[in-house]
Amino acid sequence: GQNIDQPTEMTATEGAIVQINCTYQTSGFNGLFWYQQHAGEAPTFLSYNVLDGLEEKGRFSSFLSRSKGYSYLLLKELQMKDSASYLCAVEDSNYQLIWGAGTKLIIKP
Amino acid sequence: GAVVSQHPSRVICKSGTSVKIECRSLDFQATTMFWYRQFPKKSLMLMATSNEGSKATYEQGVEKDKFLINHASLTLSTLTVTSAHPEDSSFYICSARSQTTGDLETQYFGPGTRLLVL
After folding, report:
1. Which tens digits make up the pLDDT trace of B2-24?
2. Do residues A31 and A49 lie in contact, with contact meaning Cβ atoms separated by under 8 Å?
């Protein structure tokens, strides 16, 4: 079956760095998304990785290893507003999205 | 974990026809379901929120007569694109919020339906 695993919840301190991991087993792979979702709001697109390696976008970076079925989202210089759920989703061979359950990130002062 | 399915996974239709997309929560009851549209830059736009047994709440700019939403049961919501035009071609994603699984804020997303209007 198809499966996406990410931690349910993580806690980090304001100003610190946090890495949210995502592992996947899917029928084919066409890309991997990371979304941020604040409570009661629609998900906001953060990144889309197709090739292996690290992509940096400001305070957020996303890494992909297709051979390992693994990705992570790295958040630097954490701010209180980064408290949210972070969703990992993989596009399978049919370009359908397989979603992780999301990681709830709690930022403490 | 909670599973949400969508049917069909992809559909091609002629301009002017109507297309119905189903969203089902397979192993939990969802009093609230959300319909999104994914744009080419991968952002998700919330189209509407549907609550079981009541009328859907549409976001600003979304035509309620064009995108008909029916949430007839705790496990099924449907989105009907009426009189479809090529600009309606997109990837439509639903999500469901459970009252019995996980916390009340968690949304479980479906795999999406790719619509192509010729």
Report:
1. 789 999 999 999 999 999 999 99
2. yes
